[in-house]
């Protein structure tokens, strides 16, 4: 089943949950301080006077009582009483009835206001006292007669328990602090010290009514027939998907109040013996009021939730589902319980395969086998607390506080601390996402360490597979990874770089232009030619027919000069509006920057020619290859370029020798199925278009070589595919199988394996950007990937540039 899309071992005795008949609970408190004795009767546990006020969640004031004794206590003839902070006003009373079992709670609802969004659980008693949100005194009295005392000393002998808060004149010791419209004052699990300021702290209200229900109509406070492992089942989809379930017991292990997927995780402390069934579950609610350590009974509807992108449906999404409860009713039985111990997971525990090859089949239709694949392994622990220790960061923190680590530090390591993708459908098995539930951002980058224990429930994210929703984050050790600086070209070398500048537009802050300029000048060492991808038009994403990009390029080249670089000239071809894909209205295109003192550009073709739709061709001039249009586009009306960038080709001259540069930005992978998802191995529907684009470029290069087999041709750009992909094979040889004659060398493959990456996606170091050269240009080449973005938290672009130095 589906909700609306959203924007991103045993630890406690079974008796604590199962011996709750008719409102009975077992209360486990923290360790007692030396010399202290536990309370042995009724105490006021929580006071909230902000109900119904502005900023309140709950619509009513309330007082919560608990029994810290070992046997049930009758409250027939008792009352809860209240007086204002001055201590001089008359006491108001609410009579009580019934009894309170050991460790159980008794909820007294008071006056209702006009604000708030959430009703209290069904109370055990109801009154009409309008308490102050910030200051006053509440007493538990063994009588229904209103008190007449007006000092702390006089009231002490007349009450069972008493709590003053705020500026109250009547209190025990001194008043509790922090009460407000949004926060109650709550007793700690320590023994009653008779000092309200020490015994109570402020926090989100947590009304509990175990004595008389509040559990969606059962009225018993007893666990229902199903446990979490029954709901999770031994399959990917819950056997109870869509069913209403009642009073599912567990201990709250984590609460998320950030983002669009708010709620809490709870876990059964009494697991079964089936390794395929999870003992944890997520409860989705926009206003979670429980706390970690609460013993709860949760009622709701079981949902297998699929996050859907725009246009996706249940039948088309490749995302995995998350089993959770929705439309909740929650009974808090006791606070401060020991949470189930986290399972410590190491790389040795993980299977050797990330996903099982099902020939494109749906993994959710198979049996769950934790030993089969990493996807199975983590799914069998969905919602459960796990712990990972001493992990290395392989994907930097992003703006959402998401980062990736590896549990297998020796698995496909890059030379700078990442984890590489080395073959199709071979997602590194040790990769794992970590996201702190409190919304904090540790600002880590590749190679940093997170030492000690990181703990939290497991969940699945469409943005990067299985995740620890970290309630505890280990200690960050920043290893201060340094950006790469390219070796400057010699006077005899021609330096050609490629750089995806990520939707560069004049509206971008000056800091982006400065950072791009700094990277080109200092890290790329001012190449002679720079092929840029993703340069937007003069008004960026405004979709108004503007296609010129001279303002964008002037702003960039001026920034380069300001950083001490050359005054680059540029060449480009403006696209037809909204025909090249990318951000609507942005009209991204490829651009050449070049230094006029070392390189000359060979302009060819008439000024009246529509170069956006007229393709350049190869001709022969004085026995050498030449372009009919330079700058020009390669076969721009070919269907393979539909909604995609067209290659820009330019003829340059270096020391009197012609050099042909082809700048590319192939079709993106956006339509492919999720590599962390339900279909394995995932369909890569975008491959077909990229292979078609690669063939067009291959054939164009071959036309140049047909004129001069030693011609210097350099093919650069963001090809959106891997060095081992069919598209790269087609580009090099004209054949996806690689059976044709190779006319290009992909320089990334000439580097040591540990250096073969240009991009970091979801914690995986991979190749998307390439420089390829013909045989005439591949002698004595020097090639570098210049890592300045993808591994770092603060990125100017999501791609790393690269540069080749050659001798034409």
From TrEMBL:
The residue ranges of the LTD domain are 31-167
Signal peptide positions on this chain = 1-27
Region listing for Disordered, in residue ranges: 174-247
Output the InterPro entries linked to this UniProt entry: Endo/exonu/phosph_ase_sf, Endo/exonuclease/phosphatase, Lamin_tail_dom, Lamin_tail_dom_sf
Gene3D superfamilies recorded: Endonuclease/exonuclease/phosphatase (3.60.10.10)
Write out the biased-composition intervals (Polar residues): 179-191
CDD domains in the cross-refs: YhcR_OBF_like (cd04486)
Q: Where is the composition biased (Gly residues)?
A: 213-222
**Which Pfam family is one of this chain's hits?**
LTD
The UniProt keyword set, sorted, is: Endonuclease, Hydrolase, Nuclease, Signal
The GO molecular function terms of this record are:
endonuclease activity
Q: Return the PANTHER family for the record.
A: ENDONUCLEASE/EXONUCLEASE/PHOSPHATASE FAMILY PROTEIN (AFU_ORTHOLOGUE AFUA_3G09210), ENDONUCLEASE_EXONUCLEASE_PHOSPHATASE FAMILY PROTEIN (AFU_ORTHOLOGUE AFUA_3G09210)
Q: What is this protein called?
A: Endonuclease
């Amino acid at each position: 089943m589906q909700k609306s899309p959203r924007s991103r071992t045993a630890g406690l005795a079974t008796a604590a949950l199962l011996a709750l008949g008719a409102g009975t609970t077992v209360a486990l408190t923290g360790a007692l301080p030396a010399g202290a004795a536990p309370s042995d009767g009724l105490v006021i546990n929580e006071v909230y006077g902000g109900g119904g006020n502005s900023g309140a969640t709950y619509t009513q004031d309330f007082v919560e009582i608990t029994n810290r004794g070992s046997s049930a206590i009758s409250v027939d003839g008792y009352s809860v009483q209240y007086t204002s902070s001055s201590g001089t006003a008359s006491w108001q009373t609410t009579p009580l009835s019934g009894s309170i079992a050991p460790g159980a709670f008794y909820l007294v609802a008071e006056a209702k206001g006009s604000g708030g969004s959430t009703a209290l659980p069904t109370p055990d008693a109801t009154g009409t006292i309008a308490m102050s949100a910030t200051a006053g005194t509440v007493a538990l009295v063994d009588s229904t007669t209103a008190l007449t005392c007006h000092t702390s000393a006089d009231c002490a002998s007349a009450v069972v328990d008493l709590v003053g808060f705020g500026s109250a004149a009547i209190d025990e010791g001194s008043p509790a602090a922090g009460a407000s419209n949004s926060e109650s004052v709550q007793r700690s699990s320590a023994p009653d010290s008779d000092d309200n300021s020490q015994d109570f702290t402020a926090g989100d209200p947590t009304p509990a009514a175990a004595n008389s229900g509040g559990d969606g109509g059962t009225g018993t406070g007893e666990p229902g027939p199903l446990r979490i492992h029954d709901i999770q089942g031994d399959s990917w989809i819950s056997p109870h998907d869509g069913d209403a379930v009642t009073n599912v017991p567990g201990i709250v292990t984590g609460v998320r109040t950030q983002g669009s997927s708010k709620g809490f995780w709870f876990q059964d402390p009494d697991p079964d013996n089936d390794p395929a069934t999870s003992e944890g579950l997520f409860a989705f609610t926009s206003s979670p009021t429980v706390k970690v350590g609460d013993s709860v009974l949760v009622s709701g509807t079981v949902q297998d939730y699929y996050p859907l992108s725009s246009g996706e449906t249940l039948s088309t999404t490749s995302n995995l589902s998350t089993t959770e409860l929705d439309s909740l009713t929650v009974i808090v039985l006791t606070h401060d319980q020991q949470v189930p111990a986290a399972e410590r997971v190491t790389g040795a525990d993980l299977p050797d395969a990330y996903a099982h090859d099902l020939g494109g089949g749906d993994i959710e239709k198979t049996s769950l086998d934790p030993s089969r694949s990493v996807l199975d392994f983590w799914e069998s622990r969905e919602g459960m607390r796990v712990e990972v220790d001493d992990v290395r960061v392989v994907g930097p923190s992003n703006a959402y506080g998401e980062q990736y680590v590896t549990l297998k530090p020796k698995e496909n390591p890059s030379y700078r601390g990442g984890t590489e993708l080395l073959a199709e459908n071979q997602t590194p098995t040790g990769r794992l996402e970590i996201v702190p539930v409190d919304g904090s951002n540790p600002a880590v980058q590749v190679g940093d360490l997170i030492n000690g224990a990181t703990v939290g429930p497991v969940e699945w994210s469409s943005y990067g597979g299985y995740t620890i929703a970290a309630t505890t984050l280990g200690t960050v050790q920043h290893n201060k990874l340094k950006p790469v600086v390219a070796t400057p070209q010699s006077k005899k070398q021609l330096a050609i770089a490629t750089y995806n500048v990520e939707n560069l537009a004049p509206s971008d802050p000056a800091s982006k232009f400065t950072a791009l300029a700094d990277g080109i000048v200092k890290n790329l060492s001012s190449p002679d030619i720079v092929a840029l991808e993703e340069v937007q038009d003069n008004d960026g994403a405004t979709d108004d027919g503007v296609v010129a990009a001279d303002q964008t390029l002037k702003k960039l080249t001026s920034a380069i000069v300001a950083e001490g670089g050359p005054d680059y000239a540029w060449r480009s071809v403006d696209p037809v509006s909204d025909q090249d894909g990318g951000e609507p209205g942005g009209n991204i295109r490829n651009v050449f920057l070049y230094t006029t003192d070392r390189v000359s550009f060979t302009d060819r073709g008439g000024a009246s020619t529509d170069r956006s739709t007229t393709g350049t061709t190869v001709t022969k001039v004085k026995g050498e290859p030449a372009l009919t249009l330079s700058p020009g586009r390669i076969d721009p009306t070919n269907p393979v370029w539909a909604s995609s960038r067209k290659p820009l080709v330019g003829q340059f001259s270096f020391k009197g020798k012609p050099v042909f540069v082809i700048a590319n930005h192939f079709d993106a992978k956006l339509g492919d199925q999720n590599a962390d998802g339900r279909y394995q191995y995932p369909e890569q529907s975008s491959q077909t278009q990229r292979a078609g684009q690669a063939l067009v470029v291959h054939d164009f290069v071959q036309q140049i070589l047909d004129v001069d087999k030693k011609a210097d041709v350099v093919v650069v750009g963001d090809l959106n595919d891997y060095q081992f992909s069919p598209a790269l094979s087609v580009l090099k040889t004209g054949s996806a199988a690689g059976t044709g004659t190779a006319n290009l060398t992909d320089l990334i493959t000439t580097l040591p394996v540990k250096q073969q990456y240009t991009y970091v996606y979801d914690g995986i170091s991979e190749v998307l950007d390439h420089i390829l050269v013909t045989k005439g240009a591949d002698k004595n080449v020097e090639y570098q990937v210049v890592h300045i973005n993808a591994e770092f938290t603060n990125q100017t672009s999501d791609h790393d540039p690269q540069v080749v130095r050659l001798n034409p």
